[in-house]
Fold this sequence. Notes:
Structural class: alpha/beta
Largest sheet: 9 strands, mixed
CATH class of the largest domain: Alpha Beta
Number of helices: 16
Bound molecules: ligand BES, manganese (II) ion, zinc ion
Distance between the termini: 34 Å
CATH superfamily of the largest domain: Zn peptidases
CATH topology of the largest domain: Aminopeptidase
Radius of gyration: 24 Å
Strand content: 15-25%
CATH architecture of the largest domain: 3-Layer(aba) Sandwich
Amino acid sequence: MDIKIEKGNIVDATSDTIIVNLFEGVTVPGGATGAVDAALGGAISDLIAGGDFKGESGEITVVYPRGAIAARRVVVVGLGKADGFDLEGVRRAAAAAIKRARDLNARNVASIVHGAGIGGLDVAAAAQATVEGSLLAAYRFDADKKKEPQNDVQTLTLVEYDGERIEAISAGAATAVAIAAGVSLARDLVNMPPNVATPSRLAAAAEKIASDHGFNVIIGDREWAAERHMGAYLAVAQGAGEPPKFVILEHNADRTDLPTVVLVGKGITFDTGGISIKPSERMGDMKSDMGGAAAVFGAMETVGRLNVPLRVIGITPCTENMPDANAYRPADVIKASNGKTIEIISTDAEGRMVLADALVYAESYKPDAVIDLATLTGACVIALGGGVAAGLFCNDDTLKDRLLSASGATSERIWQLPLYDDYRRSINSDVADMKNSGGRFGGVGTSATFLREFTNYPWAHLDIAGMALSEKAGDYTPAGGTGFGVRLLVSYLQGMERSK
Ligand code: BES
Ligand code: MN
Ligand code: ZN
């Protein structure tokens, strides 16, 4: 879907479909919606007066002008109550409207920017949210495109009457296009079957991002990792048939004068559990165990498109976790690249193993902040719910506050959980510096405490186990890979950029 911006009156738009909106409780529509209502002889006011349309959040009504204006159909979307209306309301409204337009086979759609009129939201932010909600809702995974007849909306034109707002709208829309590209990339990578989205395929995706945006890229193979003594990462890769790839993307690599943020993403392309094999029921969901890596790639794609004025590094240790004659086993003792030793309790606690060496490697960039994203524990999903919120662990208040504010701005929910020392005691080992599992209780806290052993900089860990893959569609997220984390990371980086 192409995005265009036009100055003018939406009443005159030549698109086949136009989108206007209405707050709940409004009886006489104003602004652009009022202009369309007047041109249609009061058709929208009539629907309101008759109780046929209330303007509730996500409610849609379609009005047919039959020649009264150029457009064939008018989609009116409810915004809900004006009180408390926010950017998430804008994304939802835009998504509901574009989905209906698509279902009606609309090709060219014109829309007003939701929320920038009586909604009172910042114009650029409202335009960004309108385009974000539209593009994210219209997302389709390529493989699905083959089996369904195409009825995708081709262009979405934002129409604005006030010429002074055009610049802000264009800027907001351009940001949204860059963000949606990152989210779509992350969704695509998660949606690919695990025999396609192999470590090599993820490395190829990284190489494309690098060549598109002039990043440095390092694709470390087994030997590369062995030279760097990455015993924890290599232990997991030991049983993998697919060659492991330790992938690094560097944006503004030489600009050590800029604030440096390292993004680390767990890249287990399929998690069988290894020798501590998982039950077969729903094991296929473990194709999403590279959701952290996908979020990092998505964020890097957006960083490149926006040319974010920060030094941003993406590190994604990628491998399968397979049972095999060479696989690592429970009771093995493994040495990570910082010299710490790990007693293996469960080969299914593999995410923390690959992250350990990645977090140690992150140190070499002298980072101002390191954020890792990982589909790390079922315990986090038990604690917070599936699709509800990611767990946040953080050793630095400034970083935590910035992440929480990015979470508020994007509605990608994160919820802070504690890093108590008690959790460290539960991974005490008699034969090594630590165990890789602390048992059943407090499983999310022990996993984060394990990771902390490999960090010595401001660090945040996001457990996205319940967030990367969704069985159900959300307001602007089709079922499947969600791209969770991309918008959060980009918003965090933008906050960092502003405070520089
Ligand atoms: N990839 C899983 C965690 C997971 C669970 C992700 C559900 C998405 C949905 C992870 O590698 C894992 O197996 N964790 C174990 C850890 C345990 C062995 C200490 C778990 O959560 O059971
Ligand atoms: Mn596992
Ligand atoms: Zn895993």
